[in-house]
Amino acid sequence: MPDRRVLFWTFVAGLLPAAAAWAQSEIGHYAPGVVNAKDFVVPDPGWYYCQYDTYYHSSRFNDEHGNKTDSVTVGSVTLPVTTKLDYLAVSPTLVWTSPWEVLGGAYGAFVCVPFQTNSLAAEVRGRRFGLNMEESAAGVGDIQVQPVWLGWRGSSYEISAAYGFFAPTGRYALGSTDNVGAGFWSNYLQGSLALYLSESHGTGFFFTATYEINSSNSGEHVTGGDHLCLEYSLSQTLGERVEVALCGSNVWQTTRDHGSDVTWDTSILDEVHAVGGQLAFWLIPEQAQISLNGMWEYEAKDRTHGYYAMLNLMIAVGGAAAPHAHRSP
User: Fold this and answer.
1) From CA 214, how far away is CA 4, in angstroms rounded?
2) Per-residue b or e along 12-39, where b marks 16 or more CB atoms closer than 10 Å to that residue's CB
């Protein structure tokens, strides 16, 4: 008789092609909308400590048409299925902006080391049997490094360009239910534009485009498709200490998954769209800021559909955070 756990996860695999959205080759590493509205702007020279505390919850997985998947077919029998995914990460990040210019602009870099937990619960109910199981894992996730980060400023705008990568430092084993890493490298190119709509820079529009390229998954011949991510926000400063922003993001898979171990329909490309906001408060003007962010995914295809909640902290260790400090996964 087959093991109950193996049977259960075989059922779930039919429903969720890659159960956790945060650790799968089909989706990649980069998560939009997690950081503050101004965090793509290269800060003034100095050192900065940032901490991004991120919580993600999803109780549904959508099919390629954007409809909730709530059943799985086993043989000739269709069974109702419920799922729940929770992800929590604390991501200390060290940022440095150099005192010299590169190509006529500022040069910066950062490294982010996430400590994360993720939990997947699923339940399958049938007339003759019911299966209910929860798996969770915790540990150091995949490290993000951005060694190239260039910024140029004008009187009413700022432009930045960056290259970065995610290294597979988190625990990963093919078929394991306690993975905290994704098991593959990701490289990305990123460009950002900030337009200030007032002379004081108190009102600004921020737009960022990120293109992510994934490598082959460790232990199997699967390479997830590339993704294009757009992020945008309208930010307003209120007085000397408060900032509010309306935010949105869009992610599209642009190339097909490929590899000899791919068993799913590669013509289906995932996408997700979200909207949200930010409330930030300067504990010490230009030196220390805390912010509360939220993003709601209003449409998703071939992936989980949920929401983010973020509590972020920035401290200028050396130098002033003008106009802001950093970005992170």
Assistant:
1) 34
2) bebbbbbbbbbbbbbbbbbbbbbbbbbb
Q: How many CB atoms lie within 10 A of CB 293?
A: 23
> Model confidence over 89-111: pLDDT tens digits?
899 999 999 999 999 999 999 99
- Does residue 256 form part of some domain? yes
Domain membership flag for residue 160 = yes
User: Is 329 within 8 Å of 166 (Cβ atoms)?
Assistant: yes
Q: Which domain holds residue 78?
A: 4-318
Residue located via tokens 């909308």: 33
Q: Is residue 76 part of a domain?
A: yes
The Cα 303–Cα 142 span in angstroms is: 20
| CA count, 13 A, side-chain hemisphere, 85 | 20
Of 118, 94, 140, 129, the closest CA to residue 18 belongs to 118
| Dihedral sign of CA atoms 20, 247, 67, 302 in order | negative
Q: What pTM was computed for the model? A: 0.84
Query: What is the tally of structural domains in the chain?
Result: 1
User: What is the domain-level CATH number for residue 14?
Assistant: 2.40.160.40
CB 288 within 8 Å of CB 265: no
List, for residues 137-196, the tens digit of each pLDDT value: 788 889 999 999 999 999 999 999 999 999 999 888 776 667 778 888 999 999 999 999
Winning range, highest mean pLDDT, from 226-235, 310-319, 320-329: 226-235
Our measurement of the distance from residue 272's CA atom to the centroid of its chain's CA atoms, rounded to an integer in Å, reads 11
Q: Single out the residue of 190, 198, 196, 142 nearest to residue 28, CA to CA.
A: 142
What's the burial of 4, exposed, middle or buried (CB within 10 Å: 0-12/13-18/19+)? exposed
Q: Is residue 327 part of a domain?
A: no
Name residue 292's amino acid: L
